[in-house]
Amino acid sequence: MTKELNTLATALYVRIDDVLKVQPQLAPWRPKVGIAPKLSDAELVTLAVLSALLGFTSERRWLRYARAELGAMFPHLPGRPGYNRRLRSACSLVRHMIRILAADTSLWSDDVWVVDSTPIECGRSRETARRSALAGWAEYGYCACHSRYFWGLRLHLLCTLGGLPVLFALAGAKADEREVLLGMLQAAPDVLAARPDQTIITDRQYYGRLFEAELAERELQLLRPARQGEPERPGAALFKPLRQTIESINKTLKSQLDLERHGGRTAAGVIIRVLTRILALTSVIWHNDKTGQPIKRSLIAYDH
Fold it and tell me: Distance between CA 169 and CA 257 in Å, rounded?
């Protein structure tokens, strides 16, 4: 493990541990009477982030590697079933840490957001779609960017121009992107309360008078390309370069953090694997911001 990744792991562990001391309610529930785990919750989450940054998509391979190479940092590692079970129980902690780290960066105050959704494939065969525990949530959808059909979910991301995740949601492949965005905004009133007159840049699919009225009620300004038959909309010259930002963020999650190779077979398994990768991206941006790196979203120092 490189010196830079070791520094990030140490800083992340300390931050999570400090947060749990102040807010112990964020820790996964466990009985008051019983054997306390030797691997702390802060170590568990840090370990999961490292696995995403190092490109491990198999928990068995990751734990074998961790025992061989990271024994000095994590002397007490559980078996794969215990690791998987504890990680799923830590879902709420991971979600809160994404927000805490994001809010502790200079990018958090950006007054422009970009939003989009990206496919998360969960299976390919018809038998998988019929028998999978994800059936009913995962569904068939179409990805216009790659001109392909897929069976799975969509990750909806609301980010700053610097690539920092602000809000996110997992929904079925056919879910209306506008409804998901409104649901994300409704679930986070504190984020909007601190940002009057925020600008959101979207693609053509985020359209409609009622939709734009809903955003206006929340004091949000919508910028999107004009649809066929519509007059030219304000800011048209900016859409193409700025839309590349969200595509680049999705590319980081998929190519460097293996978002589509999550390996989850249940709803809880998919959720924690996706959250872990979002936390990994947020942790890198947070660490780069704190150490004064010029490119906040660069994973080069941490992904090998």
Answer: 18
What SS3 string covers 236-261? HHHHHHHHHHHHHHHHHHHHHCCHHH
Q: Cα Rg for the chain, rounded, in angstroms?
A: 20
Q: Which amino acid is at 82?
A: G
Q: Could you tell me the mean pLDDT of each successive run of 10 residues in the chain, 304 residues long?
A: 82 96 92 82 96 92 94 90 94 96 95 91 84 88 81 94 94 94 94 86 88 92 82 70 78 88 89 96 96 90 72
**Where do runs of H (alpha helix) occur along the chain?**
3-22, 41-53, 59-69, 80-89, 91-103, 126-131, 177-186, 189-193, 209-217, 236-251, 267-290
Vertex 143, ends 184 and 216: CA angle to 5°? 30
Cβ-contact 163, 252 below 8 angstroms? yes
Tokens for 289, please give them.
């911001």
d(CA 45, CA 31): 20
Tokens of 48: 């999961």
Rounded Cα distance between 99 and 19, Å, is 12
C-alpha span between 199 and 157 (Å, rounded): 15
Q: Which two tokens stand for residue 138?
A: 């995962």
Architecture of domain 111-259: 2-Layer Sandwich (3.30)
Cα gap 213→207, rounded to integer Å: 10
Tokens of 220: 């949000």
The structure tokens listed for 51 are 């696995």
